[in-house]
């Protein structure tokens, strides 16, 4: 962890996005040391993903509200302790409902979960962003449009929406939804990755048109953060290469 944060700082990234799962896996007596390590790293860590483990079911017949509540109580406190202000709610394994279960009931259960989150979100001033996941990763909330509809229905001040170029590409979602989401005031975080979770700017067959993607964000007036959520056999080289590509492309739109 320490080395990865140092690498991002060396490459001149603006911030790092870690995982809630990592924080939750740290023993209680060692957690203050982790807080110190993160805060002393020199790079901001305002966002965390991988929120709810697949062992805690949010939909289906086996939802345990007490287990969810206990997890949220610790998770939000730990996220606040490192100074983060945003949690990404993807968690496909936790939110996917079993075969034969009602999809409308699953959406209702996800809504109930987000209402539970809103209590802690308000307490700690932490935003929870709904991440649409493609159908290979979840069977509920697959598009930005669906996430946006849910956030509008909930009307909770600390619950908003994320757009991920990778999932949008997989779902063939029209980029115009980005402007709709920005106009609603509900798009507060963006993930970028090409097909196969390749870093933007690297070869990816049938990949995302990142110029069009960024143009849509730029013309909409989006001013939030953008994280690269990617995989690579050579993270050090490709993360730097991709950052240079993204910054150059974004600057060309100004």
Note down, in words, how this protein is organized:
By secondary structure, the chain is α/β, with parallel strands linked by helices. It is built from eleven helices and seven strands. The mean pLDDT is 98.
Could you provide a short overview of the structure?
With 254 residues, the chain is of the alpha/beta class.
Q: What gross morphology would you assign?
A: globular
**SS element count, helices:** 11
Low confidence ranges? none
Order of secondary-structure elements: HEHHEHEHHEHEHHEHEH
State the total count of DSSP E strands.
Answer: 7
Alpha-carbon Rg, integer: 18 Å
Walk across the major sheet and give the strand order: 1-2-3-4-5-6-7
Helix/strand-derived category reads alpha/beta
Largest sheet: 7 strands, parallel
Whole-number average pLDDT? 98
The helix content, as a percent range, equals: 40-55%
How far apart are the first and last residues' alpha carbons, in Å? 35 Å
How large a portion of the residues is in β-strands, by DSSP E? 5-15%
Blueprint (SSEs and pairs):
Elements: H1 2-10, E1 15-19, H2 20-24, H3 31-39, E2 44-49, H4 65-81, E3 86-89, H5 92-95, H6 103-124, E4 127-130, H7 144-154, E5 159-164, H8 165-171, H9 176-184, E6 187-192, H10 210-220, E7 225-228, H11 235-251
Parallel strand pairs: 1-2, 2-3, 3-4, 4-5, 5-6, 6-7
Helix pairs in contact: 4-6, 9-10
């Amino acid at each position: 962890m320490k080395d990865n944060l140092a690498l991002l700082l060396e490459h001149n990234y603006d911030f790092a996005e870690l995982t809630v799962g990592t924080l939750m896996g740290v023993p209680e007596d060692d957690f203050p040391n982790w807080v110190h390590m993160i805060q002393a790293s020199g790079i901001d860590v305002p966002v965390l993903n991988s929120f709810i483990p697949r062992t805690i079911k949010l939909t289906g017949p086996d939802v345990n509200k007490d287990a969810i509540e206990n997890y949220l109580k610790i998770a939000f406190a730990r996220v606040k302790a490192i100074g983060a202000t945003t949690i990404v709610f993807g968690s496909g394994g936790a939110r996917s409902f079993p075969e034969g279960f009602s999809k409308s009931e699953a959406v209702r259960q996800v809504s109930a979960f987000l209402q539970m989150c809103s209590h802690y979100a308000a307490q700690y001033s932490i935003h929870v962003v709904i991440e649409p996941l493609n159908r290979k990763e979840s069977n509920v909330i697959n598009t930005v449009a669906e996430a946006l509809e849910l956030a509008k229905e909930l009307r909770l001040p600390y619950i908003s929406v994320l757009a991920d170029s990778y999932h949008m590409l997989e779902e063939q979602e029209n980029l115009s939804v980005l402007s709709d989401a920005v106009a609603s005031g509900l798009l507060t975080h963006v993930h970028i990755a090409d097909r196969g979770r390749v870093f933007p700017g690297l070869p990816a067959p049938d990949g995302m048109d990142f110029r069009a993607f960024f143009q849509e964000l730029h013309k909409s007036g989006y001013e939030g953060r953008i994280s690269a959520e990617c995989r690579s056999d050579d993270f050090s080289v490709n993360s730097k290469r991709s950052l240079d590509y993204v910054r150059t492309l974004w600057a060309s739109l100004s």
